[in-house]
Amino acid sequence: MKRILITGASGGIGLATARLLADKGYRLTLVARNEEKLARAVGELKGQGHSYLVADLTKKEDVERIAVHLEEDKYDVLINNAGAGVYGSFVDLSVQSQMGIMFLNMGALVILSHAFLKNAKSGDALVNIGSLLAYSSFPGSSVYAGTKSFVANFSESLWYEFRKKGVFILSFNPGAAKSDFHRNAGQTAKSLPEFVLSTSEQVAKELVAALEKRKTPHVIQGWKNRLMLFGFKFLNRKTAINMMGKLSPGM
Ligand SMILES: NC(=O)c1ccc[n+]([C@@H]2O[C@H](COP(=O)([O-])OP(=O)(O)OC[C@H]3O[C@@H](n4cnc5c(N)ncnc54)[C@H](OP(=O)(O)O)[C@@H]3O)[C@@H](O)[C@H]2O)c1
User: Fold this and answer.
1) Which terminal Cβ of the chain has fewer Cβ within 10 Å, N or C?
2) Domains of the chain, CATH where assigned
3) Atom number, ligand 1, closest to the C-alpha of residue 57
4) For residues 162 and 117, what is the distance between their CA atoms, to the nearest angstrom?
5) What per-residue confidence (pLDDT) applies to 109?
6) Sorting pLDDT into bands at 50, 70 and 90, what band is 194?
7) Ligand 1 pocket by C-beta < 6 Å: which residues?
8) Torsion 155-220-144-127 (CA) sign
9) What is the pLDDT of residue 78?
10) DSSP labels for 14-59?
């Protein structure tokens, strides 16, 4: 039975993905901070042999513990999904909280990718969760948008490095989705328009399909998101940035 470790799987997109993968017969290890949610999630997954690891991936020692686990215990797939953002004006937000987000979204992802890929064999796969914002600025969440550009660029470069070895790397980029993400990021008065939102289950379905097909190193989730990025090609950069600034709950 194939084994998958997925970070950020106590809720949202990670948990929806874990549920789909368990339905398909994979054996899952879920990683997140909240033990109660993890235990409940593992208990509800279909099939046998699922487990969880409690870790705060903003803490270097916790990330290193998961990295050692990945080196010692063979997994077929790693899904780096844990991520967070913060809404607000760059200077109003503490620099520490933004550095924490940079470490979670990029540092932890790089350390875990490295630990996994060192021993990866042909047929294995690494999925890194970026964002639509990897390809667009996002005023009011500038550090978050920057981290996601890193994730997409890093993952696509790895795809080329590992394709001859038969190890598949996927940069999977969701658009805005309904989860606790926006509340955790401090969304206040302004909400994202309903028509742009996908459910976590819709995102998970596309993620699992792309992982199974292994056709392309880069996926933008959702036709509306793909259409938006296509439309951006016809706008000058300044207009696109202005549009995103008007949409952003952080402004
Ligand atoms: N929702 C969106 O609109 C959207 C759009 C584009 C991309 N994404 C990306 O999709 C991924 C999943 O987001 P989501 O929408 O599912 O968010 P979510 O509902 O907030 O879930 C985030 C998950 O990550 C875990 N997590 C957060 N901080 C962590 C930490 N320090 N250490 C370990 N685990 C941590 C959370 O669990 P605990 O609290 O238990 O730790 C939870 O399981 C993220 O990478 C996000 O950037 C989301």
Assistant:
1) N
2) 3-247 (3.40.50.720)
3) 32
4) 9
5) 98
6) confident
7) 8-14, 32-34, 37, 55-58, 81-84, 104, 129, 131, 174, 176-177, 179-181, 184, 200
8) negative
9) 98
10) HHHHHHHHHHTT-EEEEEES-HHHHHHHHHHSSSS--EEEE--TTS
